[in-house]
Amino acid sequence: MKRFDLSVYLVTDRPLCGGRALIDVVAEAAAGGVTLVQLREKEAGTREFVELARAVKKALAPLGVPLLVNDRLDVALACGADGVHVGQSDMHPSDARAILGPGAIIGLSVETPELARAARDFPVDYLGAGPVFPTATKADAAPVLGLSGLGEVVGLAGRPVVGIGGIGPANAMEVLRAGAHGVAVVSALCAAFSPREAARELLQLVRAARGVQD
Amino acid sequence: MKRFDLSVYLVTDRPLCGGRALIDVVAEAAAGGVTLVQLREKEAGTREFVELARAVKKALAPLGVPLLVNDRLDVALACGADGVHVGQSDMHPSDARAILGPGAIIGLSVETPELARAARDFPVDYLGAGPVFPTATKADAAPVLGLSGLGEVVGLAGRPVVGIGGIGPANAMEVLRAGAHGVAVVSALCAAFSPREAARELLQLVRAARGVQD
């Protein structure tokens, strides 16, 4: 059985780490309570990406935190990742599933309720819905989905949903209350002074929201 | 047994095709005598790349011309390509072999005799050596290897070598006489008025050079 926990989902961004090595930021965040990591690299050459992914996988393995690779199944296969996260212009989830097999975790980004509906029969394990709030992290981000849009996606998804986009400690609980199973964050962890403390705080907020909700 | 023929090796470049669809240029060139095709896309998103690769694979299959994908093993797996061609900053050939298995064709770019020597124990089926001549096709091309450098690579390779970089009908025979098993060309086919005729001419030249040599 495939196990993953969307509660506090770190999506990496090397430039946002400032002068710090990405591997250190990821390790700190994981020690603080991150439950899932997606390695996202848009500029690295393949060999560099594979080497980075292997280092991250090695750091996460003893903590039991699964590693997903954004877009690149080749990198996921080479580093022994637990799965991939694909966007609408990445490999189709059906192709990804055919290559990676039933045991891989596969997530899909949806920017609208329509895309969530279209994805109902896709062989994916969770949806990443957003941007929930305005964000400066992704230059080509879609229009803001909002909390109501997120709720619509949750209603249509038929599987767990993680919210992404502009999420931090100030609004994490709202995202959970809108029905998301967790929060995916980029700058709230990568750019944090202490990724460990930031992860701990986010996990507490997610658990608190779930307590209120349940 | 893995079979491939490096004689006239087309490396694709969409911008060089002008207004023509890449698939048409590849099909024409293959009809003219291209013996191997490498699909090289540096700008396409993964889904677009997979769709293009499937169309090219479908066009080449009835002609018995193998398709290799540049760099991207994920795309190669998704489209059922015959293998990949990797550069020095792409996935390491040993990782590529572990993922694709013994039946895949794997080629490696080498820009110097030192790199050819370093690659001796790598699980690759051929080396692509170049740039043999100056070329404008690749913005980040290494210093020119020249015919003597190509000859050195051939002597060190321990496997077939295809020359690449600035090769066309005017100098194809020299490349063969320097010991290469074939010519890899980009603009000489992609930018040709008739890719079919250009391929036919190159194949005749390669065969003529081989006749002289043998």
What would you say this structure looks like, in words?
The structure is a homodimer of 214-residue chains. In chain A, strands 1-2-3-4-5-6-7-8 form an eight-stranded parallel beta barrel, surrounded by six helices. Chain A has a single domain (8-213), classed as TIM Barrel (Alpha-Beta Barrel), CATH 3.20.20. Chain A has 214 residues and is an alpha/beta fold. Chain A has helices spanning 22-32, 46-60, 73-79, 93-100, 113-118, 146-157, 172-177, 187-190, 195-213; strands spanning 8-11, 36-39, 67-70, 83-86, 105-110, 126-129, 161-164, 182-185. The first copy, chain A, has nine helices and eight strands. At the A-B interface, helix 2 and helix 3 of A face helix 2 and helix 3 of B.
Structural class of chain A: alpha/beta
Total beta-strand segments of chain A? 8
Per CATH, the class of chain A reads Alpha Beta
Order of helices and strands of chain A: EHEHEHEHEHEHEHEHH
Strand order of the largest sheet of chain A: 1-2-3-4-5-6-7-8
Q: Uncertain segments of chain A of ≥5 residues (pLDDT<50)?
A: none
How many structural domains does the protein architecture of chain A include? Answer: 1
CATH superfamily of chain A: Aldolase class I
CATH architecture assignment name of chain A: Alpha-Beta Barrel
How many separate helices of chain A? 9
The major β-sheet of chain A equals: 8 strands, parallel, barrel
Oligomer designation: homodimer
Terminal-residue CA separation of chain A: 24 Å
Work out the largest interface and the residue count of each chain. A-B, 19 and 19 residues
CATH topology of chain A: TIM Barrel
Strand content of chain A: 15-25%
| Helix percentage of chain A | 40-55%
Cofactor (chains A, B): Mg(2+)
Binding site for Mg(2+) (chains A, B): 71, 90
Pfam families (chains A, B): TMP-TENI
Domain Thiamine phosphate synthase/TenI (chains A, B): 8-189
